[in-house]
Each structure stands twice: as structure tokens, then as C-alpha cells.
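so i finally got all the pieces together for this one. its two components total, 507 residues if u count the protein bits. some of the lines might not be protein, just check the labels. i wanna see the whole assembly predicted at once instead of chain by chain like last time, that was a mess tbh
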Amino acid sequence: MKNALWTNLFEGWQKTESQTVMTLKQVPIFRGLTNKEFREIEKLIHERTYKPQEIIFRYQARGEGMYIILSGEVEIYLEDEKGNKNILAVLRDGEFFGELSLLDAEERSATAAATKNTILLGFFRPDLLSLMERNAELGNKILMNLARVTSTRLRKTNELLTEAQKLQPRP
Amino acid sequence: MLIFAFLFTSVLLPSVDFLERKIKSRGLSVLIITVALCATFVLFLGSFASNFIEQASSFSTRLNEEHTMDNLNVFMEKVMDAMPDFVSEFKPDETALATKLQDVVKGVIQNLLTFAGKVGGFIFTTIMVIIFTIILLHEYHNFKRSLVHFIPNKYFEVGLRLIFNIEHQISSYLRGQLLAASSVGIMSIIGLFILNLMGANLTLIVFIGIIAGLANLIPLVGPFVGMIPAILIAIMNNLGNEAAMNHYLFGVIPSWFYIFDIALMFLIVQQIDNNFVTPILVGESVGLHPIMVIIALLIGGTLLGPLGMLFAVPAAGVLKVIFQEVSFVTKNAHLL
């Protein structure tokens, strides 16, 4: 007979949680959401599979939303006129990109491509807009998180700009 | 059938989504909304039919009285007097009239048989539309996700945008039109209530208002269709009424059976709707040029009759969205 005190009674407690939800929980844009809200978000997520070297989106294409890496690897780069790649970042499991497109339909600032077999979770502006109409509270939580992520990036950019200005010789 | 089911789904989807959040069951939400809608529709039709039959029976009773026929003759004479001379001089040949009458009777019998067949077909179609609507409402989000799943990666974001724009186009158009129809309905009820010269009861006034509102869903033609039942009931109610026969609008324009009073009231309602309500509620949701709207209505009307006219504008709007996206993609193919 098993000892009730030492047996893990909570084994499998979280097993109902899908890999998608577990990945979403790592993303700052979904911080502070309840399990029920995560399940609602899961319904809006599109799972996409990409082969190595397959383009996810191109520089200057109109952006529709963000991607979260469920598994695999993605590189973000810019190409010069001769076609040489300038790699800006290499992103792996749990990391995300393209979140600014959740706010507007502006052009993408770089190209994103898979470097190996990759599964991405896409969360798109049309779905966020319809979510905001149906569930304003959840929509607001996501928007606040998005504003936090954007302001962090802005601060970081500002710091880099200040540093670059300091390095430049004064006339 | 599928088009109707899709249309009903577009209209009912927000309410089903809303109810689902409250009661946490999509199946039950779909069931409640569908049953409530069907019950309202049956109640409306039943109540309208009973009121209309009551009105018609009182009309036929009055028609049997001699002075009513005299009144009708006086009315016809007045109408003929008001017509240009060549119309009043036109006298049909009596034998030709008898043959035509026989043809009409034959036609009526044939039409009745066809009508019976059509009623059966209509009931079948209605049931199928209800079933399709229930399935679509229940599976809408899954259906959409499955559809999106099949879009190749290259066209994924463009496809998503296209679906969203089409959905947005249809739902904003329908929502705006339904709100405009409600406002026309309410304004017509208020207008008829103020006139209240037809002697009709309040229930009938409400029904006429609802019909006027629903007819308003068909652009351009609808507003005129809406005033027909009101005028018919005014004639039926006021037969034998001397005051109604000799009524003048503003004391100047002859308005037998208050016909022009009613027409003027509907005209005012239409003007308020066209110039204030619709621009605010519907706005430029479809964004079609008025000439394109007329062309769409003509094509819709020729292909599918009044129902075609009902769908013509949103269908043209959807085609416009598709055309815009396709042209954008063609121009920016290097970005895919």
C-alpha cells in the first residue's frame, strides 16, 4: 500500500496544460493571465510549421502580428543590395518577434527566416482586435503588457543611442 | 442555402459569442439564440397573420354594404379624373375583358397549385438553413481556424488579413443596416401613431413599422415597399368613411384615404434615415460608389430577385475587398 503522505498526489496535475500554453506562459506579453485566459488565448493561436531557410516574413512586408518559437530556430536579418545577410538576431525556443505588428500594420523592419525545422505560434492583430471586442478585460491586459515590452525596447534603444553618441567625436 | 446560413451566422455570431462567455457552453448558447429567434419569428408571423385576417374580414363585411361599393366607384372616378385625358378615354372591349377574366381565373388556379408546391419547398429550405446556421454558429471559430490552417506559409498573413477584412466588411454592414432598419421601424411606428388616421389598432401599426424597417434592408427599393401595407390597410379601414374620401393634405392636395399623408410620412422618415441615421450608423462601411451600388442592385435583382437585391451590396463589398487585396499582393509580390 502506498504512503499517502509521500506519494505525489499532484502528479499529472498540470498535464492537461498543452505545450502551447506552457510556451505562451514564458512570453511577457501574456504575463499575469489566468489559466482560463490562457485557454482563451490558445484558441486564437495559429500553429505554423516552417522548413529550414523558409521565409516567415520579408523586410518591408505589411505585418499582421507576432510569432513565438515553440521549437526550432529563427534568424532575423537585413540584406544589402548585393544580397549579403546582416544577421540582427538568432532566436530560439520560447522567444518571440514581430510584436510591434500587433499595434499597427506598418512594414516589417527586417526579414525573418527559419534556420531549421521550426514550429511557430502566431498571434495576429485581427484576432487581438476581435478579442478586445469580446473580452475587453483580457484585451487590456495584453495591451498593457505589449506597452511594457515596447517601452522596455524603447529605453534600451535610447541607451544604445546615447552610448553611440558618446562614442562619436565632437565637432 | 449556404449563403443564407452564412448571413444569419454573421448576424448572430456576436450574440452567441457573448452568451457563451456568460453561460460557458457554446452548444447551449447556439440553441438558446436559435430557439429565441425562431420563436420570435413565428410569434411575429402568427400575430401579424391573425391581425391581418381580422382586418380583411372586417373589410369584406364592409365591402358587402352597398355604400362601400359606391365609395369605391367614386374613388375610381376621382382617380380617373386626376389622370391625363388619354387614360380616361381608354375603354376596354367587353368581350376581350371576359376572355381575359377567364384566363385570369385559370391562371389563379394554376398558380395556387404551384404555390402549394413552393410552400413545401420553402419549408424544406427553411429547415435546412436553420440546421446549417446552427452548425456554422457552433463550429465557426474551429471552421475558420481549419480554413486558415490550409493557407500556405507564403500567403498566410495576406490570407488572414483578407479573411478579417471580409468578416469586418460583412459584420459592420449588417450591424449598421440592422440598426438603420430598427430606427426606420421605430420612426415609422411613431409617425403612423401620430397620424393615426387609419383607424388601425396599435398592434397593426407596430407590425407595419417592423415591415417598413425590414423592407428598408433592401436599398433604394425597400423604402417604397415599406409603405404599401400601410396604404392598403388605410384603404381597407376607411372604406365608407366620407371624411377619408374627401381628405385634403394640408387642405390643398387631394389625399383619398390619407394615401399622401402616409406617403409623406414615409418620405420624411426616409429623409431622416438617409441623411442622418444611415450615414452615422452605416457610414462608409462598404465604401462603394453610389453608381456601383445601383449596378450591384440591378445584377442582384436580375439574378435572384428581391433576395438578390438584399445581398447585392454586401456581396459587392466583399468583392471589392478581395480585389483590393489581390491587387496589393500583385503589386508587392516581391515581399511574399
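Chain A touches chain B through 21 residues (CB under 8 Å).
Strands of chain A lie at 46-50, 55-57, 65-71, 73-79, 85-92, 96-97, 111-114, 118-124.
anyway lmk what u think
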